[in-house]
Design goal:
This protein has 107 residues and is of the alpha+beta class. 55% of the residues lie in helices and 16% in strands. It is built from two helices and three strands.
Length: 107
């Protein structure tokens, strides 16, 4: 009984380490998003850290339009990054779940 418990605890610790490793790896996964007319381009990591913003000179002349472009394009990029992030972390968590009867909610 204690062997099974120790095995499960080791599996949980191993999974926690894999989750941390995955989070670090997601800092290197870059997602590029741009406005429909390519006047604004953003690059963020899968951990939702902004790495770059490229703004067309035309947008610099209209503050309100630039703000709208930023909101729309950044939200699209964050949505994409969130999907990648959630998918990767869920895969690691599912892989590391011990086989406990009645606890198959992740399968």
């Amino acid at each position: 009984m204690f062997g099974d418990m120790m095995g499960m605890m080791n599996k949980i610790k191993e999974t926690q380490q894999k989750v941390e490793d995955t989070k670090q790896r997601l800092d290197t996964v870059l997602i590029d998003e741009s406005s429909n007319d390519n006047k604004l381009k953003v690059t963020i990591t899968a951990n939702r850290t902004i790495k770059n913003i490229d703004i067309d000179d035309d947008l610099l002349e209209d503050k309100e339009m630039l703000e709208d472009y930023l909101v729309l394009t950044l939200n699209k990029a964050i949505e994409q990054a969130s999907k990648v992030n959630e998918h990767e972390l869920a895969a690691v968590a599912k892989e590391g779940m011990p086989n406990i009867p009645g606890m198959d909610m992740f399968k």
